[in-house]
What we know:
Distance between the termini of chain B: 35 Å
Number of strands of chain A: 14
Radius of gyration of chain B: 25 Å
Strand content of chain A: 5-15%
CATH class of chain A: Alpha Beta
Largest sheet of chain B: 3 strands, antiparallel
Shape of chain A: globular
Oligomer: heterodimer
Number of helices of chain B: 26
Number of strands of chain B: 9
Structural class of chain A: alpha/beta
Radius of gyration of chain A: 23 Å
CATH topology of chain A: Alkaline Phosphatase, subunit A
Strand order of the largest sheet of chain B: 1-3-2
Structural class of chain B: mainly alpha
Largest sheet of chain A: 8 strands, mixed
Amino acid sequence: MSVRHRSRLIRRRAALRGLVLGAATLPLIEVFGAGTVFGEEPTRDSATRAASARSVIEIWLWGGPAHLDTFDPKPGAGPDYCGPLNQAIDTSVPGIRVGSSLPLLAAQADRYALIRSMTHGQFGHETASYITQTGRDPGGRLVYPSIGAVVSRFRGYDEGYEGEVPPYVVMTTLQGRFSETGFLGPRYRPFVTGGDPNRARFAVEGIVADGITDERQRNRRELLHELDSLGQALPDSAAFERLDRCEDKAYEMILGDAGRIFDLREESDAERDRYGRNTLGQSCLMARRLVEQGVPYVKINSRGWDTHKQHFQSMRRKLPELDRGVATLLADLDDRGLLDSTIVWCCGEFGRSPKVQWEAPWNGGRGHYGRCFSALVAGGGFRGGQVLGATDEKGEQVAERPVHPRELHGAIFSQMGIDPDGALPNPRALDVRVAEPTASGARRLPELL
Amino acid sequence: MRPVKPGVLAVVTVVALLSARDARSGEHEAGRIFDGPKTAAETTPLDELVLAAQRRERVQMARPCADAVFVRRAYLDVIGTLPEPREVRAFLADRGKDRRTRLIDDLLRREEYGDYWSLRWCDALRVKSEFPINLWPNAVQAYHHWIRDAVRRNLPYDLFARELLTSSGSNFRTPAVNFYRAVQGREPDALAGAVALTFMGSRIETWPAARRQGLVALLSRIRTKRTREWKEEIVFHDPAPLGPLSTVLPDGAELVVPADVDPRRALADWLITEDNPWFARCAVNRLWAWVFGRGLVHEPDDFRPGNPAVMPAVLDFLAEQLVDSGWDLQHVLRLILCSRTYQQSPVPSGDPKKAARLFACYPVRRLDAEVLIDALDWIGGTGETYLSRIPEPWTWVPEEDRTIALADGSITSPFLELFGRPSRDTGLFVERSNRPTDDQRLYLLNSTAMRRRLEGSPRLRALVKKAGRDLNGLIAETYITLLSRSPTDDEIGTVRAYFVSGERRPREAAADLVWALINTKEFLYRH
């Protein structure tokens, strides 16, 4: 296992954690389960835990990307497993290799950590998405909120967030197959941009209305107020006061700075090219602009990863887009001094079957695979240049240090200064924790922090 | 010179004679749009109880609402649908003393009544496909069909509950058994939670352990088995070889169920009686909450000692009415709708907070997501495109089908999600959220979907065409279409000024008028 980090990024905090990382040579699952190894630091006292991260960017590869073709290559497994993508390439960190379609990311392996042993064992999109997005197993009495909604609860309007742009932004459409907010309710819904950032003008739904001038916007708003007879008859209504506040906020977005924040024409052509002229690349650029404004949670829903058929043809197109978009994002965040305060994580709801389905009707496709998959996580105090966990020689089973999504969620919450063991308010006043509890006192993903 | 309006003299007199409150609403012409004459609604026995409770707290009931306000309100509350302009005109032209009651009776007979009120029951009964609820799409259709039919035929509530509680059979062929499948789990305690919530309005988590276990035991002999048809399940009672069941009822009484009796039947026999403290009260309180947005006990699914009814006598009266009418839910609904309390103006007579708590004015609430999208599609001549979180149910719905008639909670649309349609995961009343959000406001004020809807609307195009050069006619027609009333002189003046200011083309001005009215609180809120 490679455990390395860039020396220039070692801060005091990381250095302290580095001592703990000595334990990584032990069988990690035992260390984790025992808990006492890390017992010196009280983990339940959220007050003492300063946030190292301010924002999260989640790049959700919706449908499930193939772990073998991305971050967990198995060139030795043979053509039945690798198909034409049978090369792994060296990265900037000796000992870590990734799929040959990701050369730009390979050059920056010191900026991110890979978890190759993500697992939940679910093979259906719905259940797997639910688990990966909420960090919870389904089937209980409660429908849990996604990680973005929880961050929005603790870092959004309730806690004094006053940004021009809503605290939880999804580009460009909702995944739609599970409730984003669960029992937290619609207050924590994401703002969904619609539109396509790769168009000349990113027509953010609700904010950019082509053909209606600012002056007409102002005039007709005035007309609306003059004709608002019920509002005038009920000047003290609390319900209406809320609606008026929403309206003010909406106009701040329509006529104020928010529209400018979403306007990618403010970026140079060179910058846009650098991120890649495709929806994923431009979404990454947009995400950088949003975290610059302090938006706590940005989610990019990248479509088209459910490649049952035409898998390798799709990968030839999609992997370079992913490579360019994410690699540029990491470099750009770092150059702007934002990587330390921005967590970037990227995965899908599961991996894809390591064995290629050559037979009809798939003719070279990969099926769903929940037994193991990979996640990339960078920034916000996660230490780059390392790999956590491993799969077997064909990528079919977790061989080392299984990581359930709940653990990754817990670690992200911790880095955002949200105590994963703290109470998560809910309408039934049940005793619910921010993240699924772990063995008592155990920190989540201590190896990566 | 402008002729003196007949109303003006009357208003001057009222302002001179009456309380400060009347003087205040006199400041706004607006107040007069919503208030009707004092004689507009009669006081019923239900109102006497409400008035007595309000008197004790020194709260004054608001005036009756105006007829134009009533017609819109009745359509929205009873059938979840905006009235057509001709329906508004017909009602306003009706001078019969019993016109409001007749309108309510007409509406209760409409098809949409079945759609809209089964929608509410389906929220409470968690009618949705697959996840996290365990219904397969054809079970959802069967279940919805059964519920809608029960609402439409006004199936007596005791039978409704008994069928849901005690049926056995295939979830595709005996729809009521889906009550036990529309739960996030098969374990008896999940089923017990659903029974308590649905029929007792009570959250089992708040009960003492012994009683909780008692109810769980009564539901512990339900079994399911699969058939050869995909996802079909038979729900049944398994008597052997468990012997008699001794347990505790939720009221603390002990009970022994003989081996050959389905404990669900024993539960229903205990629950569905006139003196059960939960059953009838929970049902009428639900109706009240669906009409007023707030239960007499609130939340309406949180009956417990620490959460008393705001007007207990009203709750008892309605429960008694339910029992005495032979468990006739529609009778109780009609009592509420025909009351002076229901027919109040939205403008309170005193402190708005106190008035809201004691139902001393009609509470304004944003339209339900389904009702709002139906209204917008009605104006725009547009239809919704649906999607589903799970792959199975057909999401293609015929264009003419209304959203309020949608069976499956898993069939949804971005609009419905945005406007707080309940997920139907728990059946809790709070799942539906009519709270405004910034994104909802953005959607209504400035989204592409709204712009397309208004620009492409055949109804609005016809309206403009018909008005020709008659600006006042255009304004009047737009008002009655969108707000179900005539514009006041002030409003006509405002709109005329907007049209003739010369800065914009008439077509743009007409579009802005429609845009503005749809974005008023009067359009967006029940009032």
